[in-house]
Structure formats: C-alpha cells, structure tokens
Amino acid sequence: MRNTQHGFAIVTHGGAGEPxxxxxxxxRAAKDGHARFLATGDALEAAIAAVVVFExxxxxxxxxxxxxxxxxxxxxxxASVMDTRGRLGAVAAVRDVRNPVLLARAVxxxxxxxxxxxxxxxxxxxxxxxxxxxxxDIQRDRHRKLLAELAGSVPVMPGLDRRLLDHFWNYKTPxxxxxxxxxxxxxxxxxxxxxxxxxxxxxxxxAPSLLGRVGDTAIVGAGFYAGTHGAIxxxxxxxxxxxxxxxxxxxxxxEAGIPLQQALQRGIDLFDKDVDVGLIAVTKTEAGACSNKNxxxxxxxx
Length: 302
Known about the structure:
By secondary structure, the chain is α+β, with helices and mostly antiparallel strands. Helices cover 31% and strands 21% of the residues. The chain is built from nine helices and eleven strands. The radius of gyration is 18 Å and the shape is globular.
C-alpha cells in the first residue's frame, strides 16, 4: 500500500475466494474505471464503469456470469452504489437485467434507496436497460458441477446451521449441498482528487440459497459504505458480513484515525478463518485491500 496526497485512486476486486489468475479482469476493471474518471471527473461513474467490466466478464459471479439457482434457470442478483455527493441506490433479487449496477445507479435518482424483485425488474424495463444475456455455457457448466458435487452431509456455509435451510427450503428440489459454495461479489472503490469518494458493487448471489435470498451487497453499511473519510467494499459470505455491518464498522475505525491496512485487517479478523471475507478501501491518503482468501484485486493511483 502506498500513500498519496488526495490524488485519484481506484481499487477493484473480483471476489474473496476467487483464483488469482482472474487478476486480469480486476486490472481491466480498474483501467476502465480510471478512463471513465478522466472523461467525466466523477468518482461514482468511475466505480460503476469498473463494475460493469466485471458484469460483462462471465468468469465472475456478477451480471453475465451470475450463478444459476438450484432450479437451473433462475438468476437473482444484487447491486449497489454510493458516494459522498448524496447518491445512494441498491437493487436486490433482480432477474433478467444485464447490468444490475446500472439499475442501482438509476435507483439513486429516484426518491427510493432500494428496489427489489419484480418491482426492480419493471423499473429496469421502464428506463430501457438491456435484458440479461442468454444463460451461457459457463453458467450451465458451473451449475452441472454444483449438482454433481451435491452432498447432504456437508455444511451449508461456515457458521450456518444446515437444519435451518433444510426446514425452510423453498425449491421443489430437495436440499443437498456441495462441498463449496458461490458467494462472490465484485466491487470498486474510488477517490477523486477533490476528496469525493464512491463505491459500487454487484453480485450474482449465493449458491445454494433460498429463492429471494439477499446478501450484503445490497445492504448499506454491510457490503458497502462511502463517507467523507473514504469508501469501503466487502466481499464474502453475506450472512456473516451483515451481522458485523462490516463496511460501516471498518469505516468507523478509519474515521477514528486507525491506519487503513490496520483497519482492514481488524475487519477480517472479526471472522472465523473458514468464512471467506475480503475488503477493499480508499481513504484520503491510502488505498488498499485485505482478504483471508485469494482475492483478485487491482489498484491505480495518480
């Protein structure tokens, strides 16, 4: 991590637990975000541009690469944006939207903060956002692998009680769980030279999960937060991240004067080592990332 004096900075991530050979996607996202900032001078537009790159890259669990639910057909996605100019918007459990982060940005222009499900989808149609691409071979292959790995004796996720999902399971398919689950988010945080901060995130959800499940990505203070001292984005198992209100908690430590890397590590240390979690952040003078698992990231600072 390198100190700067209020220059431009962008940090991107492709999800905690994702292989590091996907770093090229994070780098491309950072470059596109930087280019958008140079064209617009707007930190939020830069963060959104970076996240769109991830949503268009089928290797990541967001947008065109979002995981299929256990029915093999449904995709439910969350996204969010926030900046220090008062823009705040999120969408949850949306279907058939190519770029959920653009829908979240549109929500920030309405009187509302969060739209979900069918209403969010109708809003997307009303404003002319493109529908999702057809389900790809990559998505179907991942789904086939998930089904092949189903093993009912395996825990749902670290720290979560399998019996609860078993009891409330709302698919026709019986609950049988794989040795690994998808819970990735993609995100970007940006600092403008004038001290303006922004964050954007997107996720294809968690597999397996109940239909209608919403993780941390759409919940302000949990998966994302931006204030006058910086911007934070989280990734990992949302059910745990929400309980710690992780992004706002880490922001509070930064606000109190704790150095960024120390604050990020302190946030990661709130979780059991078996719980995938990662953070990226920018402050007035720093930019960095921290994770307890592999996490493809990229950073550009001017």
